[in-house]
Amino acid sequence: MANLREANARLAGVEPYDPKYLPAQVMVSANETTVDAPDEVRRAVAARVGQMPFNRYPDPLANDLRDAIALWHGVSRENVICGNGGDELLFDLAYAWGGEGNALLNVPPTFSVYAANAHLTGTKVVEVPRRADFSLDEEAIVERAGRGDVGMVVITSPNNPTGDIAPLGFVERLLNATDALVLLDEAYIEFADEGASSLPLFAAHENLAILHTFSKAYRLAGVRMGYLLAHERVVCELTKVRQPYSVDAVSQAIALEVVKHREAFEEGIARTRAERDRLAQALAALPSTDVHPSQANFLCVRFEADAGALWEGLYERGILVRDFSANPATRNCLRISVGTPEENDAVIAALESLLS
Ligand SMILES: *Cc1c(COP(=O)(O)O)cnc(C)c1O
To answer: If you ran DSSP here, which 8-state letter would residue 349 be given?
Structure first.
């Protein structure tokens, strides 16, 4: 019997993505919204799905959804591409604007998926780390991006796991300094103050691409739908890379109803923002905690105490958060998603008892 040969050498030593999900009463580890989509949306979806032919392939590009998204953001259909979650589009971008001979300019600490995709696609990763206070080293990023060897720059705004916004003046300078594709990952932008989105820069900069997801503010993490706003040339290249039917008919129908009913989500977004600020104040009042200011639906909290032990203590009390202490830049940091008022009260009470 023959042995199986080795897989692609780039897979050696790669750890599969692990969301570190564990069952818990209070799940505040993955930046989801605790409350499900509004009933009116679920009812509209049920009616649509009840009529849907399951035997036929879906519209590969989800054109009805693209049109609705384009109208919403004031762009054309050719500027919109949908993906099986934002994560799929991140992989397609790594393939299309990365590969051998190309570099990704990454700004850690940030979402781990960018560097993982770069590795899988043979793209060199160039890092311009954030400062100790998590602010962007704007001069260094602009200078490095302009040297000519970078295919793509990723700026996450609000950043995951730190919650910081990228100032628009900086984004504009960066766009003008490089012909690299500048990806603004705005997965959490709905939770940020008005004026934070880079969308106003879109029309004048063909190298700007903006990533959005329905997983966070629009409460569809289980459905898998994300989209990119980009120049039609970018969309065209991505249509060469993407899996033809990655966005299934049911997900298209659900996302279309969410776009139509998007006002129904505004109250929940406002509640999350208010709860974020309440949670931040309460945690900042605890001994030896440093709550980083956040424009997202989570808080990055640094403790003087060992964050790994605090993570354990919280889990024993039924609360699942995300531990970032393995990375030196976020040593002793936990990322805590904003939940319902009751969940946030439980987090506050548990940390109060653990830290006293
Ligand atoms: C959650 C998230 C995404 C996309 O998530 P999907 O569920 O795949 O749409 C993209 N970028 C960041 C920074 C995220 O946190």
So the answer is: H
Question: Do 99 and 123 contact (CB within 8 A), yes or no?
Answer: yes
Of the pLDDT bands very low, low, confident and very high (cuts 50, 70, 90), residue 182 is very high
Q: Could you tell me which residues come within 8 angstroms of residue 269 by beta carbon, excluding any fewer than 6 positions away?
A: 190, 191, 217
CA of 186 to the centre of ligand 1 (A): 9
- 156 Cα nearest atom in ligand 1: 13
Q: What percent of the chain has pLDDT over 90?
A: 97
Per-residue pLDDT at 224 exceeds 90: yes
213 CB near ligand 1 (under 6 Å): yes
Q: What is the tens place of the pLDDT at every residue in 296-336?
A: 999 999 999 999 999 999 999 999 999 999 999 999 999 99
pLDDT at 356: 87
- CB of 197 closer than 6 A to ligand 1? no
Between CA 111 and CA 354 the distance in angstroms is: 28
Angle at CA of residue 44, ends 43 and 50, nearest 5°: 90
Tell me the residue ranges of DSSP E strands in 10-51: 26-27
- Range scoring the smallest mean pLDDT among 3-7, 15-19, 156-160, 212-216: 15-19
Q: Output the residue whose Cα is nearest ligand 1's atom 12.
A: 187
What is the phi/psi pair of residue 155, to 5°? -120, 125
Rounded Cα–Cα distance for residues 200 and 21 (Å):
37
User: Counting atoms of ligand 1 from 1, which one is nearest the CA of 226?
Assistant: 9
HSE, side-chain direction, 13 A CA sphere, residue 250: 10
Q: What is the DSSP string of 129-140?
A: ---TTS---HHH
Per-residue confidence band for 257, with pLDDT thresholds at 50, 70 and 90: very high
Q: Which of 139, 114, 111, 113 is nearest to 126 (CA)?
A: 114
Q: Measured from the CA of 225, which atom of ligand 1 is nearest?
A: 9
Ligand 1: nearest atom to the Cα of 221: 7
Q: Does ligand 1 have an atom closer than 6 angstroms to the CB of 160?
A: yes
- Ligand 1 atom 1, closest CA: 187
Global pTM? 0.97
Q: Is 87 near ligand 1, meaning CB less than 6 Å away? A: yes
